Amino acid sequence: MTLAAFSVHEPTRAESPLLVEVPHAGLAVDPQSLASLIAPARSLVRDADLYVDELYQDAPIEGATLLVAHVSRYVCDLNRSESDVDAAAVDGGGGRAAPHGLVWRTTTDDQPALGAPLPRSELTRRLRDFYRPYHDKIAEVLKRKRDRFGFALLLCAHSMPSRGRAGHADPGRERADVVPGTRGRTSAAESVIEVVDRLSNEFGWTVAHDEPYKGGYSTGHYGRPEEGVHAVQVELARRLYMDEATLLKRQKDFELTRSFCRRLVARLGACTVG
């Protein structure tokens, strides 16, 4: 049986124009993918956006659609382009020479993730079974919402290590509490971006736009304000809600962060764009 790539949770109250997508919280690795994976088991958890699906579990109560991926980013990274593969990760790949493309070949601790480049047929299988169904669903929901409301909003929900790791572009650097990624404020209207800023300020949390993450594939691909779709990626520093050494929740902090996420969903859902 094929592993379910994702689940969709529709609004349980009056629908809003907002779709929340959580592409990196999943930990599942199907047997075919597991055969080529040599990353340590702990890396699967450390490199997942652990608990982000739970942080946003209240989104349907606030009228948003919630889309949660179940597969690990070590199966395929759903926040990368189909063409973002290189020969070190996939036979015949010709994309950018980077370790964290559609198929990760190293962990963020700079350890090998693959024993050898994947056969092209294996990449084709992962695209067919996991990647394309996920993005087809995003496109479907955004179209439905744009047709109904005249515009649609996409919140790309992520978390990040509180300090850059060896495999990151900012190793050892402490990061802000909240990083809104909007491709230089081009993927969403200013009124949408301001919602994230204002709420973060209310919680007393620091904010750094596009640093170190400016928004991945979903933000850039779907965020087209001129076509009525606004997208913002929100990265939350993991120190806000978990112990990054033990990988366990700090329950009181987790509930505070969950309340932030619920309020963010509510305010984005009520946002108007010009």
Give me some keywords for this one:
274 residues, alpha/beta, Aminopeptidase, 6-stranded mixed beta sheet, two-stranded antiparallel sheet, 7 helices, 15% strand
Describe the structure.
With 274 residues, the chain is of the alpha/beta class. It has a single domain (6-269), classed as Aminopeptidase (3-Layer(aba) Sandwich). Helices cover 30% and strands 15% of the residues. The chain has seven helices and eight strands. The protein has helices spanning 31-34, 41-46, 52-55, 120-149, 190-202, 217-222, 251-269; strands at residues 6-9, 18-22, 65-69, 152-160, 178-181, 229-237, 242-243, 248-249. The strands form two sheets. It has a six-stranded mixed beta sheet, sandwiched between helices. Helix 5 (190-202) runs antiparallel to helix 7 (251-269).
Which secondary structure elements does this structure contain, and how are they paired or packed?
Layout: E1 6-9, E2 18-22, H1 31-34, H2 41-46, H3 52-55, E3 65-69, H4 120-149, E4 152-160, E5 178-181, H5 190-202, H6 217-222, E6 229-237, E7 242-243, E8 248-249, H7 251-269
Parallel strand pairs: 2-3, 2-4, 4-6
Antiparallel strand pairs: 1-3, 5-6, 7-8
Helix pairs in contact: 5-7
Quick check: average pLDDT?
A: 94
Q: What spatial form do the alpha-carbon principal axes imply?
A: globular
Strand content: 5-15%
CATH 2nd-level architecture: 3-Layer(aba) Sandwich
Strand line-up across the major sheet: 1-3-2-4-6-5
Strand segment count? 8
Q: What is the terminal separation in angstroms?
A: 46 Å
Low-confidence stretches: none
Give me the CATH superfamily.
Zn-dependent exopeptidases
Structural class by helix and strand composition:
alpha/beta
**What is the CA-based Rg, rounded?**
18 Å
CATH topology: Aminopeptidase
| Residue share in helix | 25-40%
Number of helices: 7
- What is the N-to-C order of secondary-structure elements (H for helix, E for strand)? EEHHHEHEEHHEEEH
The description of the largest β-sheet is: 6 strands, mixed
Question: What's the CATH first level?
Answer: Alpha Beta
